[in-house]
Amino acid sequence: MSSVIIIGGTSGIGLELAKEYAARGRSVVVTGRDRSRAEKAAAEVDAVARGGADGNVPRARGLAVDLSRPQEVAAALEGVGPVDRLALAAIERDLNSIKDYDVDRAIRLTTLKLVGYHAVVSALLPRFTPESSVLVFGGVAKDLPYPGSTTVSTINAGVLGMTRTLSVELAPVRVNSLHPGIVGDSPFWRDKTDQLAQVRSRSLTDRLPTTADVVDASVFLLENRAVNGVDLRLDGGTREK
């Protein structure tokens, strides 16, 4: 049976996307750096699957995959079968400025996303079908940099190039990218009320994206067969400062 693979599915948006697909009766594999966390997340996803309305019980699995060690990615994914959908959602929070530039942190994050993501796709390529699709997560820091976003903004801009080249190299497999703004109800942001209020004041919709919004957009990009090579910004629109 083909699976939905969520790279970075142990928490946040990746975990909620895994739950959404499990509730739809799909077989799901979630990955994280730590095996125990990945297996715990898989158990949580499997619990959602068991509550599915159609009574189907897909088996959710958790795998340890460390994108910062891309040479080991292929071996970590060796047991994965046919791939129907692949979401590359793994992230690390980072503050790094040119003034106080941390080279080691920059190398780690750049490797994780721009090399690690490619290593995953390369490892899984023989297991795609013409109907498979790939979603790459970036972020609006590519357009709206902030103090300390030197590495994050650069990498998220690199996701645009990644989407372009993969959509050509993997054709007819579809490849799209999603660039959420600050997700107001995410565990990282929900208690930072002052910062959220400042960002919301610049929103054209007077609201911030929610986790449900991001999951909905993710499913759209993964499932709509006419959408390919698209970089979708998801922030409700932003006023200029």
3D architecture notes:
With 241 residues, this protein is α/β, with parallel strands linked by helices. The protein has 7 helices and 7 strands. Helix 1 (12-23) runs parallel beside helix 2 and helix 1 (12-23) packs across helix 7 (211-223). The longest helix is centred in the middle third of the chain and has 22 residues, at 103-124. The chain starts with a strand and ends in a 7-residue tail after the last strand.
In short:
With 241 residues, the chain is of the alpha/beta class. The chain is 39% helix and 17% strand. Helix 2 links the parallel strand 2 and strand 3.
Mind sketching the topology for me?
Elements: E1 3-7, H1 12-23, E2 27-32, H2 35-50, E3 61-64, H3 73-76, E4 83-88, H4 103-124, E5 128-137, H5 150-169, E6 174-180, H6 193-200, H7 211-223, E7 231-234
Helix pairs in contact: 1-2, 1-7, 4-5
List keywords for this structure.
single chain; 39% helix; seven-stranded parallel sheet; 241 residues
The helical percent reads 25-40%
The mean pLDDT is 90
How many strand units?
Answer: 7
User: The biggest beta sheet, please?
Assistant: 7 strands, parallel
- Roughly how many Å apart are the termini? 50 Å
Radius of gyration: 17 Å
Order of neighbouring strands in the sheet with most strands: 3-2-1-4-5-6-7
Number of helical segments with 4 or more residues: 7
Q: Can you tell me the residue ranges where pLDDT is under 50 for at least 5 consecutive residues?
A: none
